[in-house]
Specification:
About 65% of the residues lie in helices and about 0% in strands. With about 230 residues, the protein is an all-alpha fold. It is built from 10 helices and no strands. α1 runs antiparallel to α2, α5 packs across α6 and α5 packs parallel to α8. It has 2 domains: about 60 residues; about 150 residues, Lysozyme (Orthogonal Bundle).
Length: about 230
Amino acid sequence: MFATTILAPALQRVSLLIGDLFRKSLMVAGLILVIGLIGLQTGHSGLTDTLKLLVSPVEASIVEEPAMPSEVVDTTALTPRMQGALNFVSRRYRVASDALLPVFATAQAVGRDLHLDPLLIIAVIGVESGFNPFSQSGYGAQGLMQVVPRFHTDKLPEEADPSAFLDPQINVQVGARVLRDSINRMGGLEEGLQQFGGALSDPDRRYANKVLAEKQRLEQAALRLRTT
């Protein structure tokens, strides 16, 4: 009897608490319904937004990340001039266009950064390696632009090992910087090309003439393909 006397008031308080919560829930539900009906009838977007917040406060507090665009912008898109030159090189050297695209895109980007004509870079590649990324000379020059690793490791991207010189894109990046430095050091395009090609002692400048002739062919081919 003593236990019953103690439990009875406690049970009564619990019952009252549950009843109070139930009544408050009904009041909130009624308020939500009224706001929703008014918002729908009057077209008041603020009331409708309030309804959403009341119905789902947890969802309303979540900040969704912006959706990724369905199409990724191609930041390596070639200019018509470079695309025309790529088509010409693909046919002339019998190299797939897909394999040449990263090379041309890199030449275009690094040429813009270094204020070099990207077709000059492409012309040097044609003369130096014929677009063979694994080309290596007896002197130790490697890759598309025949860069000598022991002289230019300082131009490699951070954390790149010496084997990166055979990576076509890195080779073009490094080779273009070497070419730019040669032109600046020698004070002119032809003299810079001669130094780049290791032919400073040639008074006829045959290396420079060969590169510039290749560049002219690229220019003409690009112009012809753009106008057809």
